[in-house]
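Bumping with the actual sequence this time:
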Amino acid sequence: MSRVGGILDVSSRGIIRCWADRYVADFRNVDSLNGMKHSSIISFLRGEMSAAKFLQEVQVEVDRCTNGLRTKGFGNIIVNDGPLEIINRNHVARLFKSVLANELPIEVANYLADGLILSEDFDFAEDETVEALHFLADDSRPPTIEEIEAIFIELQ
């Protein structure tokens, strides 16, 4: 488990560890926390699930995270366990394309990018893939459409 600000890390043992600027708590009852489904992430990135369906599944979690950032100074990002999946440039290009087509809000793309980077169930085929995800996960400022388009073109 890596220590990253504002992250809930769900271990395979069902223990959630919450980090902000410091360690906050362990939660042993995870039934009330849904998180992004590993299978839905893969289905969306492969193009098997529409962006609208994916958005419908994760919007509540993204809203909780955003609200937590505003009210508590940290948000929760939860990805359910799944088998190791290699994320490649085509997967990330699908994410960028969905943002450019206004099918996914940037907040959802940011949440998904953070989840992919932080989960131990995903690895990356190319350095460009990781760099593109880090760009989307950057909370220091919202990306511009021109920046998103430029990275999308590089991923093609």
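The tokens above came from a reply further down the thread. The beta strands are 7-10, 16-19, 23-27, 85-87, 122-124.
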